[in-house]
Amino acid sequence: MAAEATGSPAGVACSGCGGTEVDAVEQVRTGRGASRQRLYSRLAPGPEKGGDGCLHFVEGMVLTGMGVALAATGVGQDKPLYTVAGVLLALVCFFGTFAVVRDDRREKAAAEAGAGHADWLWQPAHYCYGCGSVFCPGGVPWPGALTPEQFKKLVWTEAGYADQLTPGDRAREAELPPDVLPWRP
Predict the structure, then answer these.
(1) Exposed (0-12), middle (13-18) or buried (19+): which is 140, by Cβ within 10 Å?
(2) How far apart are CA 106 and CA 102, in angstroms?
(3) 149, 163, 170, 185: which has the fewest C-beta neighbours closer than 10 Å?
(4) What is the pTM for the complete model shown?
């Protein structure tokens, strides 16, 4: 009865506690209690990379322009400190902008490249409201139940973008059970 009320398939029971109040992870991220438990980010299938670095490029060029303006002010008022500081600011901002934009594109490319593998692990996953664990019915593609943090680390690691887990994200420090992916050494 509880399984039908939540919209989960009939007969799906949590592999951790045996409870039947479960839903697909995709539904849980935006469903009841998701914001209170921060499930949207805890069960994220991957980093949400928007744009292509254009905003960072514009910001960097504005700061570079401010450095050039400071240097021009120094030249016009015969103030060498302003000139040197403006030139240094412009150079740091100019080259820093290209480094940031390159990293943005690299991270976005990694997220796009790993999306298929992440979906393979993420789509069949279910969340148990009773014990707060994530599992796959039938134990495929992994057996047992994981915490949301372990689940996120599993998906992000296997998709190739675990390095994009932010500092302070508990998934970054989560330990995966040794038998979670039996085909991996």
Answers:
(1) exposed
(2) 6
(3) 185
(4) 0.76
